[in-house]
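Long-time lurker. I teach an intro course on protein structure, and each term I like to show students one example going from raw sequence to a predicted 3D structure in token notation. This year I'd like something fresh instead of my usual example. Would anyone be willing to generate the tokens for the chain below so I can use it in lecture? Attribution to the forum is fine with me.
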Amino acid sequence: MGLFSKDIRSMDDLLLHGLHDIYYAEQEITEALPKMIDQATNRDLAQGLKNHLEETNRQIERLDQVFKKLGTTPQSTDCPAIDGLIREADNTAGEIEDKSVLDAAIIASAQAVEHYEIARYGTLIAWAEELGHDDIVRFLTTNLNEEKAANTKLNTVALRKGVNRKAAS
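-- Reply from a regular --
Happy to contribute to a lecture. Here you go:
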């Protein structure tokens, strides 16, 4: 069956499907981050990833609140996009010998995940607003803002903290 099954009959169903998708993605990210933390050799990168792991757990808690506000049980649905991004990160990391280059690759992979989450949360917020679910917009917006901040921090580590420069030398 395709990504959008015939079970999605309304915009409310589509919103719920999107929430199931991001719920799955956040859970998968909590499983992938510890490996990235272990692989990172740059202290700023490793600490930033640890901080984001804690943040991701709080994001899952907020999503639990979103499901509660909607009167439904939290559940997830497979997200081929996040599965692919995580698989690609693992494959790329497995091909890199130089630890400095690996740090740059970890940042790139983490940013790909952040960009996916930013896109998903932005869409969910727009749908929730359109459907009048103002009670969940705050939770989703907090998650979105954290994802944007995580992306900015990754940029800082790559550019200002010298990860890319070290990898290139």
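Some talking points for your students: The helical segments are 11-39, 43-69, 80-94, 99-130, 134-159, 163-168. The mean pLDDT is 94.
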